[in-house]
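DM between two lab members

TW: hey, do you still have the Acetylglutamate kinase entry open?
JB: yeah, one sec
JB: this one, 132 aa:
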Amino acid sequence: MILIAPSLDDIARLAETALHEIPNELRQYTRDLVLKIEDLPDDEIVEEMELESPFDLLGLYQGVAMPFQSVGLVRAEPDRVFLYRRPILDYWCETGEALDDIVRHVLIHEIGHHFGFSDEDMDRIEGDGDSD
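TW: and the structure you got?
JB:
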């Protein structure tokens, strides 16, 4: 039997589903959010974050943090969440957790930290499911 690892498109589909299913409490902040799925963080991110390995990072939020946003701020790019396929797949293999749960967890935490949610807030949000 030949098994094929989930592709970038597979991870993107899981992320889109997770984004639409997260509770409105968090989703309200994601209207213009762009999801980017890449195999690994680039060398610049690895260096900037002082990672030992590109496999140390499952996801990353890039954008202007909410406390620094203002009406007069002209933004060149939309906020983006990067999910890194190969580190996510490694984590999936190591833990045996469901892949969709991992993607959802990483997505919620990247969005939540960016907007100042505590780990306890995000754990509660993850447990809430869709609460429109």
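TW: got it. The mean pLDDT is 85. Strands lie at 34-38, 59-62, 80-84.
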